[in-house]
């Protein structure tokens, strides 16, 4: 697929940041240090990857705005366009030597996500989508799964940790969902969870208390792969409310009914 100039800039930036992270990831397994020391190392890897992305993306499009995990929001001269970036989604996996993490980049235009890239550098899987041009992984076109029965479907989510206040709601979600489906997965990288829905590997995904950069690229990937994406609150806004539910069309209503209670 030949994408737009912006999409090609995003893919190039994701690959460059991914190479830096893969190099650092190999060092994580060799670190014989305290948790704090390893955490500091990963934080430096995260910051270095964001610096690469900022240089590549704002270097190519200096008038665009910027929203990212480390530096927060930087308004651009062009108020209609903004990069939304997570240099390392799945930081805890990275810290523990688990090869399931990604670079995530989205382009927002007039409040709508128009392009997204999620790069799983450890597996060299480049997921990308652009409005009206479909969703892809490397050279393959992506489609959401065709399953139409909840009992045959598997779903993904994040589980609250460290005593977060949304734990009771998530436990209630699981209590309602688990009896109706083939399983729930928790792999610790929301961007990849949404990419996997787009690829048909998962049938659906939901999570609360995410950040915009965790899910912005995933939103367009799922939509361009033929899936439905909504806020958990039907009257809400995905990025502002920091929550999302997505699935293939045949099971979306049943799945969302379970999650929304």
Automatic annotation (TrEMBL):
Classification via Gene3D superfamilies: 3.40.190.80, Fructose-1,6-Bisphosphatase, subunit A, domain 1
The gene coding this protein: suhB
InterPro entries (UniProt xref): IMPase, Inositol_monoP_metal-BS, Inositol_monophosphatase-like, Inositol_monophosphatase_CS, Inositol_monophosphatase_SuhB
Keywords carried by this UniProt record: Hydrolase, Magnesium, Metal-binding
Family note: Belongs to the inositol monophosphatase superfamily.
Name the record gives this protein: Inositol-1-monophosphatase
Lineage: Bacteria, Pseudomonadati, Pseudomonadota, Alphaproteobacteria, Rhodobacterales
Keyword Zinc-finger: no
Catalytic activity, as annotated: a myo-inositol phosphate + H2O = myo-inositol + phosphate
